[in-house]
Amino acid sequence: MSLKKPIKVVGVSSGKGGVGKTTISVNIAAALVKQGLDVLLLDGDLGLANVQLALGAVSEYNFSHVLSGEKTLDDVVIETVSGVDLVPGASGLKDLASLSERETSSVIQAFSSLTKQYDVFLIDTAAGISSSVVSLLGACQHRIIVLKDDPSSIADAYATIKVLFLEGITRGIYLLPNEVAGMEHAEQLFTNLNKVIAKFLGFETSYAGFVKHDDAIPQAWKKAMPIVSCFPNSESAREFRKLANFVTNLNSNMDDNGGLQFFFNQLHSAYRSA
Ligand SMILES: Nc1ncnc2c1ncn2[C@@H]1O[C@H](COP(=O)(O)OP(=O)(O)OP(=O)(O)O)[C@@H](O)[C@H]1O
Ligand SMILES: [Mg+2]
């Protein structure tokens, strides 16, 4: 049996919908692949399957077929054109809470028996702060919270971080301002929210980097390709490569059993104690 590689498990969330979670997840994933890493992306959105659209992938099966035992994870994972491996629209994730111990161990087994070993496991979560989003984020080692400079996005990013705090999670939280005018704007947004977090919750988050507003991003969506693939010389493609470097420099999970198994154990115990 081969040794498991250490893996980084990174969740992307925002509270408010439509602020750029999927754009950021897909492009960080594609930029990491271009650096030579093996990346698995889980579409944690229960309904919309937007990640497939962004990557130009079509799938017959999704994670719910793994939960029901009809398919193995190897059957369900799609290798997309950009080289990112995708677990499509995880419409069964919310049912994890009701799995029996036996079913749960088969899910954990499904992840640990994936033929390919990954360097990074990215999870694009749904909008909102439902218990399934919080459980997914809680099971990750690292959490990127995307926000825009508008009051409802800032309030929802804060609300997400507060819920994590109430779950005892204050480490591995990074803010990522999206659609900003430039570096100063992004740093200002980060500093202001971080001050509020420090004042009311008593801890500080870290800065992940930023993405400027770029009209090439909606164009890349229309082409169903990551911008780092279809417009690699655009400004935002450069920003996504920097964000990929940021992820590369995060700690990996050194758990003996392999990071994915650890992730699902954490996720399951979060659901059990909910
Ligand atoms: N930096 C940016 N510049 C310009 N447009 C952007 C930028 N980031 C995202 N967008 C656009 O914003 C829209 C929403 O982005 P996206 O789908 O990634 O958000 P989301 O947070 O995943 O949404 P949802 O909550 O529905 O899952 C898309 O049309 C995308 O093209
Ligand atoms: Mg999305």
Per-chain topology:
Blueprint: E1 8-13, H1 21-34, E2 39-44, H2 50-55, H3 63-67, H4 73-76, E3 78-79, E4 85-87, H5 101-112, E5 120-125, H6 131-139, E6 142-147, H7 151-166, E7 173-180, H8 183-201, E8 206-207, E9 211-212, H9 216-222, H10 227-230, H11 235-248, H12 259-273
Parallel strand pairs: 1-5, 1-6, 2-4, 2-5, 6-7, 7-8, 7-9
Antiparallel strand pairs: 3-4
Helix pairs in contact: 1-11, 5-12, 6-12, 7-8
Bound molecules: adenosine-5'-triphosphate and magnesium ion.
Residues 21-22, 45, 50, 124 line the site of magnesium ion.
Task: Describe what is shown at a glance.
Helix content is 46%, strand content 15%. The protein has twelve helices and nine strands. It has helices at 21-34, 50-55, 63-67, 73-76, 101-112, 131-139, 151-166, 183-201, 216-222, 227-230, 235-248, 259-273; strands spanning 8-13, 39-44, 78-79, 85-87, 120-125, 142-147, 173-180, 206-207, 211-212.
**Low-pLDDT segments, ≥5 res:** none
The helix tally amounts to 12
Radius of gyration over all CA atoms, rounded? 18 Å
Specify the helix fraction band. 40-55%
What is the H-and-E element order? Answer: EHEHHHEEHEHEHEHEEHHHH
Any idea of the CATH topology?
Rossmann fold
Shape: globular
Ligand types: adenosine-5'-triphosphate, magnesium ion
Q: Work out the count of structural domains.
A: 1
